[in-house]
Amino acid sequence: MGYKGKSTEERIKKEAMKLFLERGYKDVSMQDICNATGLSKGGLYRHFSSKSEILLSLVEDERKADVSERIACREPAVQILTDYLDLFYRNMLMSDQSLAYALFEYASMEKDNSLMENSRTDSSLWKELIEYGVETGAFNAIDYRMVMNTLLFAYRGIRLWSRAVDIGEEIPESIVEAVKLLVIKGYRREESK
Fold this sequence. Notes:
It is a single chain. By secondary structure, this protein is mainly alpha-helical. It has two domains: 54 residues, Homeodomain-like (Arc Repressor Mutant, subunit A, Orthogonal Bundle), CATH 1.10.10.60; 121 residues, Tetracycline Repressor, domain 2, CATH 1.10.357. It has ten helices and no strands. α1 packs across α4 and α6 runs antiparallel to α10. The protein is globular. It starts with a helix and ends in a 10-residue tail after the last helix.
């Protein structure tokens, strides 16, 4: 895809994000996205076949990480984990940018496995990271699924609830700290927190 196509795709996602944040999933149509972007239906469908495809693309973008590339470069496992957890932490604090409500509506309405496919992608990433950390001696020998499920479901809950109530920083911090305590060999929570 050329620059113009990529630029159009980004504009579609930006406008769709605004609509999903404002109205949720159920009350947004492809026509609404056409109106917001100024594209014809054909122009929109050239890039995305459905609003669910747009939403899932936004979810994928939310937690994009270069974990595999960093492992290939043999960066320290603790640094990779810390940076990845920081991405989750920042996202948990951005309640005004949470797609959790739209995702909840999507999952309730569509009854497909796209979100579970997303979890499988997360699963392979976490498996790779935990195995790398164990291999290098930085991480405890722990089941990556336990770590992933603990973080991802806490993350999703925070993202959903933060749309309704002020979560603050303490809860996201405690989630990140819990993962570090589970994973990093010899990790001790800093006293200043």
